[in-house]
Amino acid sequence: MMGYKAVGHVLKHTRAEGAAWRVVLVLAHHAGDETNECWPRRDLIATEARITARAVKYAVRSLVELGELTVVEHGAPVNGPRQYRPNLYTLCGPNSGER
């Protein structure tokens, strides 16, 4: 599930800078071309963006404020108290009808 369209859109249109720019590129890479949705774990985003998990949290908040991302938080346990579902991230871009 590589978001080639999403990556191209982000490279041309994002207003994000710094860590937020790295995070939106990672999310675009994981996003489906038809839906612009992805659900990578925060630690995976941090590893691929080469930043800390805490920096991912702040970068996501910044992207939401810029209107470039929506997030559905899935903090509920899946199979026991220590297994959590990752959040659903949707890029606001070419297939979403936004921007």
Structure, described:
The protein is mainly α and 99 residues long. Helices cover 45% and strands 10% of the residues. Strands 1-3-2 form a three-stranded antiparallel β-sheet. Helix 2 (18-30) packs across helix 3 (42-49). The longest helix is centred in the middle third of the chain and has 14 residues, at 53-66. The model has no long low-confidence stretch (mean pLDDT 86).
CATH hierarchy, class? Mainly Alpha
Average the pLDDT over all residues and give the rounded result: 86
| Number of helical regions | 4
Strand content: 5-15%
- Let me know the largest β-sheet: 3 strands, antiparallel
* Element-level helix/strand string: HHEHHEE
CATH architecture: Orthogonal Bundle
- Helix/strand-derived category reads mainly alpha
* Cα gyration radius (Å): 13 Å
What's the CATH topology label? Arc Repressor Mutant, subunit A
Shape: globular
Q: How far apart, in Å, are the first and last alpha carbons?
A: 22 Å
Q: What is the H level of CATH, i.e. the homologous superfamily?
A: Winged helix-like DNA-binding domain superfamily/Winged helix DNA-binding domain
Low-confidence stretches: none
Strand order of the largest sheet: 1-3-2
